[in-house]
Amino acid sequence: MLDVRKDFPILAQSVNDEPLVYLDNAATTQKPTAVLDVIRRYYDQDNANVHRGVHTLAERATADYEAAREKVRAFINAKSTKEVLFTRGTTTSLNWVAQFAGQILKAGDEIVISILEHHSNIVPWQEVAKRTGAILKFVYLKDGELDMSDLRNKITDRTKFVSIAHVSNVLGVINPIKEIAAYAHEHGAYMVVDGAQSTPHMAVDVQDLDADFFAFSGHKMMGPTGIGVLYGKQDLLNQFEPVEFGGEMIDFVYESHSTWTELPWKFEAGTPNIAGAIGLGATIDYLHEIGLDAVHQHEQELVDYILPKLQEIEGLTIYGPTDRAKRTGVIAFNIAGLHPHDVATALDMEGVAVRAGHHCAQPLLNYLDTPATARASFYIYNTKADCDKLVEALQKTKEFFQID
Ligand code: PMP
């Protein structure tokens, strides 16, 4: 198992007089010192605006910013840095794709998403459907995972976009994106992937998946907040118009009209989140040092360890697939007779941080027929001792609320 806790000083604290056990990694992750140091160094030594300056600091900042783009390119195996757009995060990335879609969708065209999507992969599509008259269709589930026969029925020759999460932030299930992309392409549709919950936890290869667009956030993979990525195939990005306008993205500005600069800057209007991008680059370096296979392996061991222990707790329901090979370290659960908010509050008294609520997936929870769940989500710095503490704190919670 990995032993990286020393890299995360934030974890060495007590919460409510108990050692902190941080199990809210699907919401956001902690940042290693190596990443914080790089961000600090950038502001201490190199801070300047990118691309326009000819002075030394501006050149250094630009070189670091563009080096981060190359790190992202290699990380997801994009063909070119022209295909890597920096955004504020997955939400912005998916909004951009939906706006691109708005440039070509016509009334009666179809968009296929699934019931397990995060709101950021639902609401932008609802909005573009409303504007264009396109029809939004949902794929439903079978045994806690996507129902692939439903997916095959929902994707037709009228489908123009298919947009699916690589990993669900509630069920933890890993969706067969490669297979879905192949099916979408057979029908002439573009494949959009919400990679917010996969990229931090497993090796991602956008070419192998054959994703047309792939979105993810820095903060869920130990990077800073406010930085994310939209990958898009170069020919597609060339085809679509930018959705934000202003400085940095133009070639020439005339009184009557303007022309756009080349990829990837054509989409990046305004001063970008330079420190964020550099921090994301440092996160990728850190993840490479550990190795994504080791990350995945570590989390699988934790899931193997905790799942049977949770399953032994009477009255505890786990959502998502039972086959652990199909899931990551995101475990949503409920305890009969207890509101998940009470569970999360009681766990916090024991120093255990979990999330409770709808996890920005209200249609999914509605489909699962529960208004809310608790959710424990694991990452590389979690240990088997953290798992034991969670189980022990859950038992205490049940005793406290006198649930047998
Ligand atoms: N999709 C999924 C699957 C997520 O888990 C999240 C974050 N909870 C998002 C999208 C949105 O990411 P962000 O808030 O970083 O834009």
How would a crystallographer describe the biggest sheet? 7 strands, mixed
- Please give the count of helices: 13
Q: What is the helical fraction, as a range of percent?
A: 25-40%
Q: Report low-confidence residues grouped into runs of 5 or more.
A: none
Strand content: 15-25%
- Terminal residue distance: 34 Å
The distinct ligands, each listed once, are: 4'-deoxy-4'-aminopyridoxal-5'-phosphate
Q: What is the CATH architecture term of the largest domain?
A: 3-Layer(aba) Sandwich
The number of strands is 19
Question: What is the CATH level 1 assignment of the largest domain?
Answer: Alpha Beta
Q: In which order are the strands of the major sheet placed?
A: 4-12-11-10-9-5-6
Average the pLDDT over all residues and give the rounded result: 97
CATH superfamily of the largest domain: Type I PLP-dependent aspartate aminotransferase-like (Major domain)
For the record, the count of structural domains works out to 2
Q: Would you give the CATH topology of the largest domain?
A: Aspartate Aminotransferase, domain 2
The general outline is globular
The value of Rg in angstroms is 22 Å
